[in-house]
Amino acid sequence: MRVSTNSLYLNNVSNMLGKQSALYKVQEQLSTLRKVNRPSDDPVAASQILDQTQAKDRIEQFNQNAKAAESSLALSGTSLQAAGDVLQQVRQMAIQAGNTTLTNEDRNMLNSELEGLYKQLLGYANTLDGNGKALFGGSISQTKPYSELQQFGSVVAAGSSIVQYNGDANRQEMMISSARQVPVTDNGQYVFGSIPEGNGLFKLGAGSALSNVQVDLGSVVDRAKFDAQVAGPLALPTGALSQAGARIEVVFGSEDDGVAGQATEFNKYYDVVLFDGAAYTSLVTGKSGATAAAASDLYTASAEQVAVGNPAIGPFAKSYPKFQSGADINLNFSTNPAPYNIDFGAKFAMTSEAPANGGVLTLEPSKTRSIFDTLNDLSRVLQSNAATPADATDFANRLGNVIANIDNTQTRILSVEARIGANRNEADALVEVGADFSLQYKAILSRLQDVDVASAASELSLAKLALDASQNSFAKVQGLSLFNYI
Fold first, then answer.
1. From the CB of residue 152, how many other CB atoms can be counted at a distance below 10 Å?
2. Where is the Flagellin N-terminal domain (predicted)?
3. Amino acid 208: pLDDT
């Protein structure tokens, strides 16, 4: 076979270039320690490397998010724990204020200390993280959550507040896994602002005529029945307290038993009147009207006019329950005519002397109040003068309401702390799991793209040897010529 000089040169140059390319490829692998430096090196492996790298980057980003979330949650938990400590001090102060041996000067000193605790609590509610973002402003993190509207200890109009919440009801969340977001800020209105009054379900309030009577917080004995009264439609026997402004009034009065042949004896009785926002209805007698007095004689009538045993009054007046100090007043009635068969599922006790005639105790669904207003209420109580027995009883009732609201706030803070603790534990666990996943992805990537240095070094020597042999053989072949033999 004849081989032209041109073909000889082309073939040998092509062979040398191929061996040189192989040498450079191995040399590049050794210099980068990667066996896949471009998709053309290994298209299948390059695709797998891209997928695994993206997965590893996602996991590492989630880990960073989880660490940041854990840091914010830890700061929130610390602030709430400190706030709880402040509230415990305030609660002890309220109990101390109830000591009858304290003078007005003593209470003024307590009030000065209370103002300092109020400022501390307000500071905890306005806590910022390391980036200057508010932790209790909801999704509004660049504004201080709470600002003061009035000076501490001043009189606050009904329906107003001593502070203003500048945040919102949302929470900022951070993605810590592909399927989980955790809140890193809280709704400060929920934590510090929307605290239920009373026992958390209903609130009892005593009028001026009942200032000599100490009332407990009351309790719900049947939650389903109570909820039906508060949440149902405005119709007896359910939903009696659902309309705005609706309330129960318990009115007290003395009545002549009117037993024939016996001396006149006056006992203390009470009536339970429902105000539905428009009219009053006695749940004992069934009487109703546009005014309280039209629904129950006990508001204004004399003892002779409302004598239980007086048949001239009619059959309903005979149903008035008798009051006994310390005994429970159960708000459940079954009277005629229908539909006045009602059970509020609630009860309370009055633990002091008999209430004054015409005295009214109100019961309404629990409203919400900020803890800052509760502390201001305590300040107002400490500024009051309990000079008479009636003033002292009113003082004790107001202190009882303050302590109840503090207890409700502590319960709220503890529930938020528990949720924060659970989220912190979850973030910590995901950091550990994410670290394990990251190691696995790195191992897979190493198998796909990392070069075996020993093998590559051996391959480099072979490639260089092959290139040298090709170059040397070509040098010898290209020097052959017939003219050397002529």
1. 18
2. 3-139
3. 45
E strand segments, 166-265: 173-177, 180-183, 195-196, 202-206, 219-220, 247-256
Of 461 and 264, more confident: 461
Mean pLDDT of the chain: 75
| Architecture of the domain spanning 51-196+414-437 | Up-down Bundle (1.20)
Contacts of 432 (CB under 8 A, 6+ apart): none
Q: Which residue has the tokens 């480099």?
A: 460
Q: 119: alpha, beta or left, given left = phi > 0 and alpha = psi -120 to 50?
A: alpha
pTM for the whole structure: 0.69
Q: Name which of 56-70, 240-254, 429-443 the model is least confident about.
A: 240-254
DSSP state of 192: I
User: 220 pairs with which residues across the strands?
Assistant: 346
Task: Report CA-CA distances (Å) from 304 to 257, 264, 298.
Answer: 10, 10, 11
Rg (CA), the chain: 42
Cβ–Cβ under 8 Å, residues 90 and 82: no
CA 61 – CA 437 distance, rounded (Å) = 12
Cα separation, 326 vs 188, whole angstroms: 39
* Tokens linked to 336: 């005629």
CB atoms within 10 A of CB 203: 22
| pLDDT band, very low/low/confident/very high, at 122 (cuts 50, 70, 90) | very high
- Asked if the bond preceding 237 is cis, omega within 30° of 0, the reply is yes
Task: List the domain boundaries for the chain.
Answer: 1-33+453-486, 51-196+414-437, 204-366
Section 399-404 average pLDDT: 86
3-state helix, strand, coil in the chain (%, to 5): 50, 15, 30
pLDDT in tens, 143-171: 999 999 999 999 989 889 999 999 998 88
Distance of CA 4 to the CA centre of its chain: 90
Triad 76, 423, 163: Cα angle to 5°: 35
